[in-house]
TrEMBL record:
Official protein name in the record: Integral membrane protein
Keywords, alphabetical: Membrane, Transmembrane, Transmembrane helix
Residue spans crossing the bilayer: 95-119, 177-198
Keyword Transmembrane helix listed: yes
Keyword Transmembrane helix: yes
Length: 686
């Protein structure tokens, strides 16, 4: 049996046990089998608790079938009562109070659930912030998660005394056990309801939506933001915004980040820039009256059109990377005031795509993120050649040339692992497998190949290993960086509690994060043997840190190639498009300064030879020329050009505001002339 089948079988063990236990409990209740009734009820409770602990997805699936945890708990309790009636240890009338007690218990449970909904609504503010002092709002911590969100777990927990009491009564025929269980369960729910009700009292109730918006407008007036970034996207798209955090922080003026999805606030990486999330369009429109003049946009989304309606703000599309793919020339870009690109290549790309972008609106700014990339320093000096394989994902259009993972990935990795002098860094795109399952499966097989190669190398006792102090240093540096860049929250923390804890950052934190990041990266690479292959899927180390560690890059037609060219190091591109090599190079200009690999990866040995012996590298001059074409000149630096573009666009916005003010001043509706009487007594007016 394959691993996938075993995993699927294991996934259905708990629900199968739950269903069977319910069936056995029903039969044993009808047949008056006390011991079987008790055993099946215990198994049923245990299976339900395990589902909530380890398989939340199946709990949701049961809910879609209307077999919610509440329904399951009610059925369990009723089956226990039915069993008691069938055992007939007492007259049936004696059990009427048990049924009434259960009704009281469930009434308290539903009351607690209703109060949780009300409390949750009062704690949902129209604006969510980060890096902003919210002390004026008098926010407080959220109630326990067991009361607010984990309804099923609360019911299972509070229902334990009831179930235990009924089971004890079934075994002993003493009703006092059922009474005690009911009392304990009802008390549990009553205490929870009281705790939630206290949150609705005037002295504990949070600020209203109007008060929160009033506070936000006051903050805008005091902070007076001038430049910012607007971002809206899905759960896995935060990396698109994160790559622009440092360039935005270095801009002249007072920066701000504007988000639309509440979950995105905690997905934005560490930054000192004030972050505001405005889910509703009506609240977003309040930015029109602010001092904000310019917004950059790393991506397009359905909600982007809403902010483009604000006439007092100018908008620039900066994208989250440039490549030769058609997605880099989206017609949506013509909705922005300007399109900021890295270099002449992107300008030409828009002109050739003919998607309605006026060349006068295209501004070349370089790639300000690439300042951290170290330049090419020649052939590898150590015993190992470090190869970075960073394929992109499969995309939305089903084009087989988008990613090499499916057709060529395993061949590339197999060829690299076959060279004893290669250390492989494998960094797949975070969205790999999100559209095409074959890409996800190939990605997993590649990782298994790399792990197996590491096990084989580790068996060689002659290979050097870092001292234990290196691992301890990485642990220390990780803790230091985490303390600066992450906030620790309780499981029950909601947006309001996070706003309370993530107020204005301490002075100097940004510089401390920069230093701590550099120290962490050095400790990270030093903590592993120089021969050990690495699978890099976490946020750290970044792709730019991997660039600096690599001697050569293998990738697909993507922005990774363009960014890597900042180093002028050798690179290769996998051709899975089906095009002949010459046509492939002509179609995708970023390929022209690198080697082209066929899906069988037969060109890997020649690539490694050219990396180890630069005199055999035929593309060195081409890389310098292509770098200039893709990324623009190094003087002035990209950061300077980015700031100049920002300043120019802000000036356009200010000129537009001044023009609007002048037009508003002169566009006065003429007053109606006062009526007057003519000599003959007639009344006339204007």
């Amino acid at each position: 049996m394959s691993a996938r089948l075993r995993a699927a079988a294991a996934r259905f063990v708990l629900p199968t046990v739950l269903v069977v236990a319910f069936a056995v409990q029903a039969v044993s209740a009808l047949l008056s089998s006390v011991h079987v009734l008790v055993a099946s009820a215990l198994v049923c409770l245990a299976a339900d608790a395990a589902l909530h602990r380890w398989q939340r997805g199946l709990v949701t699936a049961f809910g879609k079938l209307h077999a919610t945890v509440t329904v399951r708990q009610v059925v369990r309790d009723l089956l226990l009562v039915l069993g008691l009636l069938r055992i007939d240890v007492e007259p049936e009338s004696k059990y009427l109070w048990i049924v009434c007690g259960l009704m009281v218990y469930y009434a308290l449970h539903f009351a607690c659930q209703a109060l949780a909904i009300v409390v949750r609504r009062t704690r949902t503010l129209p604006v969510v912030t980060r890096n902003i002092d919210t002390s004026a709002l008098h926010l407080d911590a959220a109630p326990p998660e067991l009361l607010m969100h984990r309804t099923g777990q609360r019911l299972l927990t509070s229902g334990l005394p009831v179930a235990a009491g009924l089971l004890a009564t079934a075994e002993t025929s003493h009703l006092r056990y059922a009474a005690a269980g009911l009392a304990l369960s009802a008390a549990f729910e009553a205490i929870g309801a009281a705790m939630l009700f206290a949150r609705l009292l005037p002295r504990r109730k949070p600020v209203t939506a109007d008060q929160a918006i009033e506070w936000f407008e006051k903050w805008l007036a005091e902070y007076q933001p001038t430049v910012g970034m607007y971002f809206s996207g899905g759960t896995n798209s935060a990396y698109q915004a994160n790559m622009w955090l440092e360039p935005l922080a270095r801009l002249e003026g007072r920066p701000i980040i504007v988000l639309r999805e509440r979950f995105m606030v905690k997905r934005i990486a560490s930054t000192d820039i004030p972050i505001v999330c405005l889910p509703k369009v009506a609240d977003l429109m309040r930015l029109e009256q602010s001092t904000l003049t310019m917004l950059i946009h790393p991506s397009n989304s359905g909600k982007t059109s809403q902010v483009l309606r604000i006439p007092t703000i100018k908008h620039a599309f900066v994208n989250h990377g440039e490549s030769d793919k058609l997605s880099s020339c989206n017609p949506y870009a013509k909705a922005y005031d300007e399109v900021w690109v890295a270099g002449p290549a992107a300008r030409e790309r828009y002109a050739l795509a003919n998607v309605g972008i006026d060349d006068r609106d295209v501004v070349e700014i370089g790639r300000p993120q690439l300042d951290v990339i170290q330049p090419y320093a020649g052939a590898p000096t150590g015993a190992y050649t470090t190869v970075l394989y960073a394929p992109t994902w499969e995309g939305w259009d089903g084009n087989p040339g988008n990613t090499s993972v499916i057709q060529a990935g395993e061949n590339i990795v197999r060829a690299l692992l076959a060279d004893p002098a290669v250390r492989l860094l494998y960094k797949p795109h975070p969205l790999t497998g999100s559209v095409e399952p074959k890409a996800g499966a190939a990605n997993l097989r590649i990782m298994e190949m790399i792990r197996a190669a590491n096990v084989k190398r580790a068996a060689d006792q002659s290979l050097a290993r870092p001292a234990a102090a290196a691992a301890a240093e990485l642990t220390r540096r990780t803790a230091e960086l985490d303390a600066l860049t992450t906030s620790t929250f309780r499981d029950s923390a909601d947006d309001m509690e996070r706003m309370l804890l993530q107020g204005a950052p301490e002075a100097g934190r940004a510089a401390a994060v920069t230093d701590a990041t550099a120290a962490w990266e050095a400790a990270f690479w030093a903590s592993f043997p120089v021969w050990e292959h690495q699978i890099v899927t976490d946020a750290r180390p970044t792709v730019y840190a991997c660039f600096n560690a690599a001697d050569v890059l293998i990738s697909d037609v993507s922005s990774v190639i363009s960014d890597y060219l900042a180093s002028e190091k050798p690179y290769a591109v996998a051709n899975t498009s089906g095009l002949p090599e010459q046509e492939f190079r002509e179609t995708f200009p970023t390929v022209r300064a690198g080697a082209v690999l066929t899906p069988d990866a037969s060109g890997i040995p020649a690539l490694l030879e050219s990396v180890r012996n630069p005199e055999k590298d035929p593309y060195a001059d081409d890389r310098r020329d292509l770098k200039l074409h893709l990324l623009g000149p190094s003087d002035p630096p990209s950061a300077v050009r980015f700031n100049d573009a920002s300043r120019a666009l802000s000036s356009r916005a200010e000129a537009h505001r001044e023009g609007m003010a002048v037009r508003a001043a002169v566009a006065v509706i003429p007053k109606q002339r006062e009526t007057e009487n003519t000599p003959n007594g007639e009344t006339v007016g204007g």
